[in-house]
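dude i think i finally got it to work??
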Amino acid sequence: MISEVRHLLHKDLSLELRRMHHINGLLLFVLGTVFLCFLSFQSKLEPEKWNALFWIIQLFAAVHASGHSFSGEHPNRHIYYYSIASPGAILLSKTIYNFILLLITGLGSYAAFWLLLGSPVTNVPNFLVIIALAALGFASILTLVAAIAWRSGHNFSLMAILSFPVMYPFMIALIKASLLSIGNAQTASILGFMLVLILISILAIALAFILFPYLWKE
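look at this
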């Protein structure tokens, strides 16, 4: 499976580096949204509002990015994948690809917020770790939801409907962890929320490995 994941991931990254329209569209969405926030507030935001805006933008960017995980390719190519790779390898390669994409988006968002709206974050290393955990959680959960939406006839609205209730507990832990990071809390007090984020991501990946083969065979 490792070899299959490596080749599939290499294919996805190579195609993205050739076209660049996906990541460019995401970064343009993020920069445009942050700039609108800058024009709207014109002043330094309170830490709670800054944190809420940051993760709202990340959530919508993640849904948009993951929505094209399966629908962006021709159905005949999926038949070809079915003949050369296992469902688990395909799922894992898509999850890793989305993680890389969302990590770049998250770091780019933080840089845009820092430049235009300032940054109330006092514990930057912890906040960067939280961004990485958020990218992992978003990729783990939304890749499976994107597969379900793909099997239902490329219904992107279904993905939005399914993803937000599933993302709710993850977002609660994410917001609380980032608020502690903004408030310069000790790393030990944030570790509990970080552990929750990791466990939710692992649970989502395990559930995806159980359900995805049935979706793929259909």
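Residues 2-217 form one domain.
im so relieved honestly
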